[in-house]
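Problem: given the chain below (129 residues), write out its structure.
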Amino acid sequence: MALRCATIAVTPHNVSEQMSKTSDKNCRARLVTLRNELVELSEATNEDRAPVELDQQSVGRLSRMDALQEQAMQLETERRRQQTIARVDAALIRLDDGEYGFCISCGDEISDGRLDQDPTVPTCIKCAS
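Solution.
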């Protein structure tokens, strides 16, 4: 069984246990960094998702419409950000279980290029299409 993260492939049969621990740390560090960045962005944009003031005396109609549109875009961005955080958490669980780098559908190895592109990807290219 191989552990994969980005371009690192470790096979216990031909590599020492120390290298396996190193690649595990690299994968974990990359995923934790991604998660932390997403959480920081979420906290930084919290105010942009707040309800829009509907007082027409302080804000004109077009400005209010623009604010509502901005709020809607920020809410959608946050929804997607939360989905990505959930994918990172799932990848960290797979890493802890020794299943990271293997397709959750068929069990085949996920290619290095696919993991480089998205370290949270749970399926191989065949199962994804």
